[in-house]
Amino acid sequence: MRALCAVLGRDVPVVLISGDTAPDRLLQARSGEPAVPYKPMAADVLIRAIGAALNQVAVDAGADSA
Q1: In this prediction, what percent of the chain has a pLDDT beyond 70?
Q2: CB-facing half-sphere around the CA of 14: CA atoms within 13 A
Q3: So where are the chain's domains?
Q4: Arithmetic mean of pLDDT, 4-33
């Protein structure tokens, strides 16, 4: 994700969804952004995750222009 943002030169909203619950993957996912919801998940959890990703990018863009 960081490499993609570096190539594009801007933040990109990301929602990473995983079914991998191996202990090392859980630690890796929890150590950075974005938050990683695990499947199966309810639709409202996915909608909130998408909204949070989009809102964070909007907040960051507002801070950059200030």
Answers
A1: 74
A2: 16
A3: 2-65
A4: 76
